[in-house]
Amino acid sequence: MKDRREFFSSIFKSLCLCTAGGFLANLALKASDNYALRPPGAEDEKRFLSKCIRCGLCVKACPWNTLKLASLLDSPKTGTPFFKAREIPCYLCKDIPCIKECPTDALDKKHLEQGIESLKIGIAVVDSSTCISFWGLQCDACQRACPLIDRALKLEYKRNERTAKHAFLVPVVDNEVCVGCGLCELACVTEEPAIRVLPREYVLGKAGAHYVKGWDKNDEKRIEQADTSKHFNTKKAQDYLNNGDDL
Ligand code: SF4
Ligand code: SF4
Ligand code: SF4
């Protein structure tokens, strides 16, 4: 009887310890633990999750040990691959072995033809309040680390409003070119990175179909495909402007 009581008591203690451990682990989570970057080729999270069978072949194929499979304590769905750029970024292997080895096309094989510059893993975002180059100190660590230097990440002149005498050279990211490899985040010299790569859906807005870039031929094509069956009633608009009637 005593043995039985001791047995249940030890199980209870273990459960308490596990729960407390999980609770403490949750407390220890930082804001940066609430998001994760997916491997190359997984830009559409919904598509990716519907196809990934959690086999871990991409993780095995990565020569840099960038990728991990999520455990219960990680924010992505358990068993799915992800990486943290500040720990180990994606080194953009030319032959993209992680995509090559994926047996289900969860990592989109189109990138094997289109090459590493077509990847959209995430977007680098600069925090101007902690990036020391915005303080006037000289730093180009992130820019030098960028494999798409001067295209994805440029240094631009900015006037120092505080002294009104000097100019700053500050990092600026081009969202359309940045592939989200995270090499800049790893290279950043501040205690917590002042440049971070976030999943694209966290960063990008959406202009909406009715705004068109007049200087962009591809974007202008959308006008050709637009639904022109609805016409604006100019008579109603004039009456509204003259009489204050409802349109
Ligand atoms: S491209 Fe290379 S470094 Fe990046 S995740 Fe794939 S295998 Fe790893
Ligand atoms: S290889 Fe493909 S299916 Fe397997 S874990 Fe990686 S992404 Fe998922
Ligand atoms: S994530 Fe950083 S290093 Fe990589 S392409 Fe974008 S700006 Fe360059």
At the fold tier of CATH, the topology name of the domain at 33-119 is Alpha-Beta Plaits
- Which ligands are bound? iron/sulfur cluster
Q: Can you tell me the CATH class of the domain at 33-119?
A: Alpha Beta
How would you classify the helix and strand content by structural class?
alpha+beta
Query: Quick check: average pLDDT?
Result: 85
Distance between the termini: 84 Å
Query: What's the story with the biggest beta sheet?
Result: 2 strands, antiparallel
Can you characterise this structure?
- With 247 residues, the protein is an alpha+beta fold.
- The protein has helices spanning 2-28, 45-51, 57-61, 97-101, 110-114, 141-145, 183-187, 200-203, 217-224, 234-243; strands at residues 68-69, 81-82, 123-126, 153-159, 167-173, 195-198.
- A two-stranded antiparallel sheet has the order 1-2. The protein has a two-stranded antiparallel ribbon with strand order 3-6. A two-stranded antiparallel ribbon has the order 4-5.
- It starts with a helix and ends with a helix.
- The model is unreliable at 7-29 (pLDDT under 50).
- It binds iron/sulfur cluster (3 copies).
- One iron/sulfur cluster is lined by residues 124, 145-146, 148, 152-153, 173, 178-184, 197.
- This is Ferredoxin-type protein NapG.
- InterPro entries: 4Fe4S_Fe-S-bd, 4Fe4S_Fe_S_CS, MauM_NapG, RnfB_subfamily.
